[in-house]
Each structure stands twice: as structure tokens, then as C-alpha cells.
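## retry 2 of 3
previous attempt timed out at serialization; input unchanged, resubmitting
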Amino acid sequence: APVQADRVLAVLSKMCNWQAARSDEYVSPVVRGMRRSDPNASKRTRILDDREIALLWKASANQPIFGKFVRFALLTGQRRSKVQMLDWSQIDEDGLWHLPYQKKEKPNAERLPLPDFALNVLGKDWRQFNQGLVFTEDGLKPINGFSKCKARLDADMAAMADIPISPWVIHDLRRTAKSMMAKCGVARDISERVLGHTIAGVEGVYDQYDYVLEKRVALEKLSAAISVIVH
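## retry succeeded, writing output
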């Protein structure tokens, strides 16, 4: 398929560039225009509307662990992997989530002040825990089997819906959170920082303020909007 072919092309390009850097006679056969797919054409734009969010919230109650996972992902707008690996030790007594960062990993929000709504999704007794995975079935491994859990959630939502629901993926919750923050009046650069996106240009280099207070306001506005929908 075109996407797989382009991934192979990318690997070959790196190999050829490596050789070209070491030999003046070598000319790489990989040139511009060889890609078979358009990366911009495959960008997703799906977000969940208010009706779908209400259905998700109701249906997620049927799955204690995965249900909390998707609710928390929507309320925070964080990447699936970060939510999946959430450990109690990352949340301090003030409800500040310290997101770990690994080399070669995408940037993240670093410090994210969790609103009460999100903390209550984790459990009203969240302060009693100081270590261990949050979203786990056996207490040892992080939640897995997303396809099966998501299929069950989709089935439950469909059973409750009055009209068909368009397909969606977990990452769409992140886009939904971003769009809802915009609707609530959150400045674009603040919602970008909440999601942990890189701030480009000179601003990203020179502005090293942590924006924790602004992130708190943004997530509280997001929580309030979701609360109105699901209650």
C-alpha cells in the first residue's frame, strides 16, 4: 500500500544518505517526488459532538477501567500512551500531574494541573495512593487490549444512540478536547501547551514560563463544558 511503501522509502533514504555522507562518488537514488501518498490528505479531522460525548460518558460506565481511561483522556487531552502509563506517583497532593519525558519522545505538557472533575474520575480517594499504575486490570501491567475494549464501547454507544455514530478512534478525544477549549475561549497557545505541542519559532525558545496557572484555567473550562454535557 502507498503508506507502507513510503515508510520503506524513508528507511532506504536514511541508508542512502548515510552512504552519501561517506563517499563523494555515491549519488542517492532517492529523490524528491518519490512518495506515493500525501501526508496532508490523511490527516484526521474527526471530533465528537455533544451528543456523542454524552453517549460515550454513559456507555463508559460499563467498563470500570477502560471507561475511566477514556473519560480521563477526554478531560485532559493527553496522548493515549501517557494516560495508559499514568502512575499514582506522577500526581502530587495538589493534583498536579508531572508527566515523565523520555529521550526521542514527543514533547508533553510537563506539569498539568488536574481539575477536580478529572481527579474524581480517578476516584474520590486518589490522595491515598502514592505509587502503582492507575489504569490497570491486575495492578502490574498497564491497560491493554484497546481494540476489544473500544469495540465494546462502540457497541454500547450504538445501542444507546438514536442515529448511527460515525467511526472514531481514541486519538480523536485529544482533538475533541482541543476544539472544546477553543469554543470555551481558551487562547490557542495555551491549549497547545495543555496538549504538550511544541511552540515553534522564537517564542518556543525564549518563553520558558511554565503556564501552570493558565493550563489550570483551560482544563477547568474544558471540565465545566463536559460536565454540562454529561450531567
